[in-house]
């Protein structure tokens, strides 16, 4: 990617700035039984179900509903709430360092994340880099998730910048494709090295 510097940069959070996967929390609970764990994450607490949390459904509602359908897994389903913090596996240090340098250079920074509303405050307390953002659009608070176009329009209304002047960074191609269709400049994150190269081409990294 090349061209003029964007006027603001928008980061996704999970798997861009901090590693996240439910498997991190559930592997010990399943005592390293990968087959049962795979079945649980693919057929019970799967991403379709998780997306409803990101869209604003409360953990209490989601867990109650799912436990009625799978009573034999009720304890594990409940752990999706109680073990939430264990789903995170540390920051992606290279990207947090880039974020810090961009902030120090005065680049306006924002975040857009699919994230359950009721877990967001504790996340901000845990990860200091959240203080670097001028604003954060959280799907669970807005009631709509990426890649729905509406959430990108909400983002633009919050940043005050046009899509063409905004660089959006996300690890999911469907999310960056949706943003690109609305005129955003995008970077599909895969490695810190390729992100740094994109920022270097834009004159934003060494």
Structure write-up:
This protein has 206 residues and is an alpha/beta fold. It folds into two domains: 8-17 and 92-201, Rossmann fold (3-Layer(aba) Sandwich), CATH 3.40.50.1000; 21-87. Helix content is 50%, strand content 14%. The chain has helices at 22-29, 34-43, 47-54, 59-69, 74-82, 93-104, 117-126, 139-142, 149-159, 173-181, 192-201, and strands at 8-11, 18-20, 88-91, 109-113, 135-138, 166-170, 185-188. The strands form two sheets. It has a five-stranded parallel β-sheet with strand order 5-4-1-6-7, sandwiched between helices. The chain has a two-stranded antiparallel sheet with strand order 2-3. Helix 4 runs antiparallel to helix 5. The model has no long low-confidence stretch (mean pLDDT 96).
Short structural description:
This protein has 206 residues and is of the alpha/beta class. It is built from eleven helices and seven strands.
| Overall mean confidence score, pLDDT | 96
Low-confidence stretches: none
Order of helices and strands: EEHHHHHEHEHEHHEHEH
> How would you characterize the largest beta sheet?
5 strands, parallel
CATH topology of the largest domain: Rossmann fold
- What is the CA–CA distance across the termini? 15 Å
Strand fraction band? 5-15%
Number of discrete helical segments: 11
CATH class of the largest domain: Alpha Beta
How do the strands of the widest beta sheet line up side by side? Answer: 5-4-1-6-7
Question: Overall 3D geometry?
Answer: globular
Query: What's the gyration radius in Å?
Result: 18 Å
CATH homologous superfamily classification of the largest domain: HAD superfamily/HAD-like
Number of domains: 2
């Amino acid at each position: 990617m090349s061209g003029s510097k964007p006027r603001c940069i928008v980061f996704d959070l999970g798997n861009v700035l901090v590693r996240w996967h439910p498997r991190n929390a559930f592997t010990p609970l399943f005592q390293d039984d990968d087959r049962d764990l795979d079945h649980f994450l693919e057929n019970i607490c799967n991403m379709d179900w998780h997306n409803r949390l990101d869209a604003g459904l409360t953990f209490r509602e989601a867990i109650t509903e799912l436990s009625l359908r799978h009573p034999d897994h009720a304890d594990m389903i409940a752990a999706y709430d109680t073990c939430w913090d264990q789903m995170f596996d540390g920051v992606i240090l290279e990207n947090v360092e880039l974020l810090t340098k961009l902030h120090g250079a005065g680049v306006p920074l924002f975040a857009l994340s699919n994230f359950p509303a009721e877990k967001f405050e504790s996340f901000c307390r845990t990860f200091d880099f959240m203080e670097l953002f001028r604003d954060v659009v959280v799907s669970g608070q807005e009631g709509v998730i990426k890649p729905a176009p509406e959430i990108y329009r909400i983002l633009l209304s919050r940043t005050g910048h046009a899509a063409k002047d905004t660089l959006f960074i996300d690890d999911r191609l469907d999310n960056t494709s949706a943003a690109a269709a609305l005129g955003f400049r995008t970077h599909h994150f895969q490695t810190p090295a390729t992100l740094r190269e994109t920022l270097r081409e834009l004159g934003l990294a060494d």
